[in-house]
Specification:
eight-stranded mixed sheet, globular, alpha/beta, four-stranded mixed sheet, 324 residues, methyltransferase activity, binds N,N-dimethyl-L-histidine
Length: 324
């Protein structure tokens, strides 16, 4: 049984997402132009990301799936039965069945900002687990999300796979972890846990290939942001004059994705004019990589105490269980 998704996105009278407009106009007005990575995920962006997860070069999805598959009994032991699994940014929920099959949950609450994708994946999951209450919520999980009444009083397990936390700078990651704690601990005395995926620091060549694949799918994913700006914010960005770049920043332990202007360009977005010199970039994504220590420090700063760590056989990725 799938309940109707609760819609919380804030649009103006002409259907423009106010937060998207604010982020793009502010971001393009900075000296180093930047647009937050969360705006990649319109329907096409979500589909392109799914395609990325199947690429030879993009190891994180396979590594995390391996951890979930190989440690089912250990997850069941550490988490126990009867939790409401609250998945933050569920996307296509591809890894979720492995977790749900391992721990015998009481309910599943997928939260995602992309509503259509959310409903389709909730339906698919419900078909796989008949009898499991599925309560999708269309929302931005960077802020506290009100949980459906259906899971009142049920212990909650937050599930945040995919190393999506890596797409946030530490300050935002800490804010988000605190909001997740608010979401999961609200109106219940039951304990809350969080199972979170983080990508590990490794060789530069492996990291850069994962974000600049030979088929150019990641390039399309990056460039799709410009098409989205043109479509949804009445933009005139000359997309064909931009190129995808992925660079390892060793000081901060992160991959950075940029869109580089290949010639001098001028364009408008919501009637505001912007100019860029050849070689200037729009910084579109950070993907932070962690060691066990840096991951623990981040979780602790966000109000979560790490209690278990699991890794894949090649040491590429980790899943961490923490408690509130
Ligand atoms: C969603 N996120 C964890 C992906 C990552 O690896 O940082 C997004 C991505 N960007 C390019 N490829 C994948």
């Amino acid at each position: 049984p799938v309940t109707e998704a609760v819609r919380i996105v804030d649009e103006d009278d002409s259907g423009i997402d106010r937060a998207f407009r604010r982020d793009v106009l502010q971001g393009l007005s900075q000296r180093q132009k930047a647009v937050p990575a969360r705006w990649f995920y319109d329907e096409r962006g979500s589909q392109l990301f799914e395609d990325i997860t199947g690429l030879d070069e993009y190891y994180p999805t396979r590594a995390e799936t391996e951890i979930l598959r190989d440690n089912a009994a250990a997850f069941a032991d550490a988490i126990g039965p009867g939790s409401a699994v609250v998945e933050f940014g569920s996307g296509s929920s591809a890894k979720t069945p492995l977790l749900l099959a391992a721990i015998a949950p009481a309910a599943y609450v997928p939260i995602d900002i992309s509503g259509e994708f959310l409903r389709a994946s909730a339906d698919q999951l419900s078909a796989k687990f008949p009898g499991l209450p599925v309560c999708p919520v269309e929302a931005d999980f960077m802020r506290k999300v009100t949980m459906p009444d259906a899971i009142a009083g049920t212990p909650r397990l937050g599930f945040f796979p995919g190393s999506t936390i890596g797409n946030m700078v530490p300050r935002s990651a800490v804010d988000m972890l605190r909001e997740m704690r608010e979401t999961l601990c609200d109106k219940t005395d039951a304990p809350a846990k969080l199972l979170i995926g983080m990508d590990r620091v490794k060789e530069t060549a492996v990291l850069e290939a994962a974000y600049d694949d030979a088929r150019g799918v990641t390039a399309d994913f990056n460039l799709n942001l410009l098409y989205r700006i043109n479509r949804e914010l009445d933009g005139t960005v000359p997309v064909e004059s931009f190129a995808h770049r992925a660079i390892w920043n060793d000081e901060i332990a992160r991959i950075e994705m940029h869109l580089e202007a290949e010639r001098d360009v001028a364009f408008t977005v919501c009637d505001q004019r912007f100019v860029m010199k050849k070689g200037e970039t729009i910084h579109t994504e950070n993907s932070h990589k962690y060691t066990k220590r840096s991951a623990n420090a981040l979780l602790l700063a966000g109000g979560w105490t790490p209690i278990r760590h699991w890794r894949d056989a090649q040491d590429r990725f980790m899943l961490i269980l923490a408690e509130a």
